[in-house]
Amino acid sequence: MLSLVGALLPLVLKGADLDPLASSTLSGAEGKSISVIKCYPEGRMKACGLSFDDGTLPSDTKMIAILNKYGLKATFFINSEHPQSQQALQNPAVYQGHEIASHGAHHQGLDHLSLEEAKKEITTDQQILGKTFHCKVQGFAYPYGAVPKTEEKRKELEDMLASIGIRYARWTNGGSFQPPDRFLAWKPNSGIDPNAVQHLIDMPIQDRILLLTAWGHSRDLEKDQGWEKADRLGKLLADSRATIWTATYLEIANYINALRAVKISNGEIENPSADTTVWLRVNDRIIPIKPGQHRRLDEKERASGKTLPSRE
Ligand SMILES: [Zn+2]
Fold this sequence. Notes:
- The protein is α/β, with parallel strands linked by helices.
- The protein has helices at about 1-20, 60-70, 85-90, 115-135, 150-165, 195-200, 225-240, 250-260, 300-305; strands at about 25, 30-40, 45-55, 75-80, 100, 140, 170, 210-215, 245, 265, 270, 280, 285-290, 295, 305.
- The strands form four sheets. Strands 1, 2, 12, 13 and 15 form a five-stranded antiparallel β-sheet that branches. Strands 3, 4, 5, 8 and 9 form a five-stranded parallel β-sheet that branches.
- α2 packs parallel to α7 (about 225-240).
- It is globular and about 70 Å long.
């Protein structure tokens, strides 16, 4: 029996390590417990990232007009050397305030390219897009959602992406409302669909953050009342600003990576990030932890703990 417990224990501990977004319970003063929940900026528990592929005008211009009307930011994946994106490259001002990311210079599926060819596709984009849009390109979306077939090849590709400064790589499907385990294999869970936003709004808040990752092509909004739907989606997100954080993919990936790295133990909280303030819900209080900050929960925070239910 003892040996069985011994054999199981490392698995349990490993499980806790694998969920760095899980909430924690600390013991506070006078036997009270303090719950610490990792949340989005200003204590929100829900986030939404929107992205649009292929850099096609004039439909991107129309989509951006809707986003700007509602004060929302999105991510645009552009092909620097493909004809479909050339108008976008000639009109960089249209994208002001939004994130520009790579979709491969020539919109090629990476599943049939060598590692060197794949690297060239993306670094070419990083150079041209960076120069044209005056930004650092740190995101990528797989053209056609074509990822290498084997885990080994995917890992090789992810290592290459990380080595050229890519922080996240978006697939085209397969995700859930949970943040991805690895942002270099970021699977979205919705198209540009106001019903998905409504679903996020209706989801009950628990002790773990939720994420809606939506993507599409602005040109597809030209049909099936697409623009009305896009407007409805924008209005829903704007009206839910207090509870849903809508941000670019890069902001979301960087924030969640920083949140995952936060260490909580023995009433102490440490944010090792060099540049990102993270937010925690400590019982009912919302507390920002600045980059590099290592703090104990103060007495007021500790004393605000809920009384533990008595054991019967
Ligand atoms: Zn595409």
